[in-house]
Amino acid sequence: MSGTVELTTDRLILRRHQPEDAAVLFEILGSDPQMFEYSGWNPYQTKEKAAETIETFIKSYDDPHFYGWGIVNKGKLVGTIGAYDYDADKNQIEIGMSIDRASWGQGFATEALIVVLHYLTEDENIQAVTGWCASDNIGSLKAMEKAGMKRIRLEKEALTINHRMFDKLIFEYTS
């Protein structure tokens, strides 16, 4: 296992986080309520929380089962993607991503997801990568489908976010 290594696509560089990412991620993700509308989780909600999150990521790079990237397009940080909670018994990991709202609709999530799925399954030999989204989160749903992930389960009203109930769609990509 190599952990987080730099990955590239035609348009993107996926790189390890740097301390200065915290301020950018607070601005583009943490301070925009639409960015956590379907997750309820906002690790960048304050400048301090963003700095703590990035510091934790940086400290985790010594762990060969930690995968956390900043997504860069034309020199600008446009989002994050990471894989978490590696289960050695099942040889499985969960993936999550966030793309700056100003960059939605440009295919960055799908492009980053494809290269990460390939890396995790082909290079890191992880058998299964799972991900989930709220049923109303069309952007995440489409990105996972376009990247080759298959919906394996629907959990009715499994997510309560800001007093709203959503069905939870579970996706999987296997090597």
Considering the chains and any ligands shown, give keywords for the structure.
alpha+beta, globular, 36% strand, 8 strands, 175 residues, 4 helices, eight-stranded mixed beta sheet, Aminopeptidase
List the helices and strands and how they pair.
Blueprint: E1 7-8, E2 12-15, H1 21-30, H2 47-60, E3 67-73, E4 76-87, E5 92-99, H3 108-123, E6 128-134, H4 138-146, E7 150-161, E8 164-174
Parallel strand pairs: 5-6
Antiparallel strand pairs: 1-2, 2-3, 3-4, 4-5, 6-8, 7-8
Helix pairs in contact: 1-2, 3-4
Describe this structure in words.
The chain is of the alpha+beta class. The protein has a single domain, classed as Aminopeptidase (3-Layer(aba) Sandwich). Helices cover 28% and strands 36% of the residues. The chain contains 4 helices and 8 strands. Strands 1-2-3-4-5-6-8-7 form an 8-stranded mixed sheet, sandwiched between helices. A hairpin with a 3-residue loop joins strand 1 and strand 2. Helix 1 crosses helix 2 and helix 3 packs across helix 4. The longest helix has 16 residues. The mean pLDDT is 92.
Shape: globular
Radius of gyration: 15 Å
| Content-based structural category | alpha+beta
Q: What is the H level of CATH, i.e. the homologous superfamily?
A: Gcn5-related N-acetyltransferase (GNAT)
Examine the coordinates and then state which fold CATH places here, giving the name of the CATH topology: Aminopeptidase
Percentage of residues in helical conformation: 25-40%
- Overall mean confidence score, pLDDT: 92
CATH architecture: 3-Layer(aba) Sandwich
Oligomer: single chain
The termini sit apart by 16 Å
SSE order, one letter for each helix or strand: EEHHEEEHEHEE
Number of domains: 1
Number of helices: 4
- Tell me the number of strands: 8
Strand content: 35-45%
Strand numbers in spatial order across the main sheet? 1-2-3-4-5-6-8-7
CATH class division: Alpha Beta
